[in-house]
Amino acid sequence: MRISISGPPGSGKTTICMLVANRLEYDFVVVGQIFRQMALERKVELETFGRLAEEDETIDRELDERMLEMAKAREDIVIEGRMTGPILKSNNVPVFAVYVAASEHVRAGRISKREGKEIELVLREMQTRERSEKKRYMAYYGIDPCDRAIYDLWVDSSELTADKVADMIVENARKIDAENADQVKAAH
């Protein structure tokens, strides 16, 4: 089963992705690492690359293609990224799409602690990044990545540990996998 984990910066999605993959013994892909790799390949700073992506649709299209190829190559994989669920679904790739949310203050606090930056700076950077991403996603795909209708499971991690969220995702994924297996048996 393919599992996508989406959410805003600081929601815990990367940690949760790794925990879910570990529990299910799946491979995992972090789309942000692909984006960083693309910036490195072009010898461009990450923030500059994000601004370039606002003007040059081919950057996001290349990122999507790389992610899609990885997702299509394996069924048992966890993929973390802001647009993984919507992109996989719009390309008819079977996926259990999860969105991990958290309040802006909680997310900024997590990033501040992780990166050793002042919380006010993190808030400004977060807001700039999210505006940039939302602008691109709406322009390129006509999709708001925060639209709950796109996802199979929506979890607020503000008051939950990453372990608890990972447990919820694994439990739901196993339930859906069992239901799908029962449907296949019934069809034969």
Write the layout of secondary structure elements.
Layout: E1 2-6, H1 13-24, E2 27-30, H2 31-41, H3 46-55, H4 57-73, E3 77-80, H5 84-90, E4 96-101, H6 104-115, H7 119-141, E5 153-156, H8 162-187
Parallel strand pairs: 1-3, 1-4, 2-3, 4-5
Helix pairs in contact: 1-8, 2-4, 3-4, 3-7, 6-7
Give an account of the 3D structure.
The protein has 188 residues and is α/β, with parallel strands linked by helices. It has one domain (2-155): Rossmann fold, CATH 3.40.50.300. Helices cover 63% and strands 12% of the residues. It has eight helices and five strands, in the order βαβαααβαβααβα. The chain has a five-stranded parallel beta sheet, with helices on both faces. Helix 6 (104-115) packs across helix 7. It is globular. The two termini are 21 Å apart. The mean pLDDT is 90.
From the alpha-carbon coordinates, what is the Rg to the nearest angstrom?
Answer: 17 Å
Please summarize the sheet with the most strands.
5 strands, parallel
Count of helical regions: 8
Report the mean per-residue pLDDT as an integer: 90
Unreliable stretches: none
Helix content: 55-70%
CATH homologous superfamily identity: P-loop containing nucleotide triphosphate hydrolases
**Strand line-up in the sheet with most strands:** 2-3-1-4-5
Structural class: alpha/beta
Cα-to-Cα separation, first versus last residue:
21 Å
In brief:
By secondary structure, the chain is an alpha/beta fold.
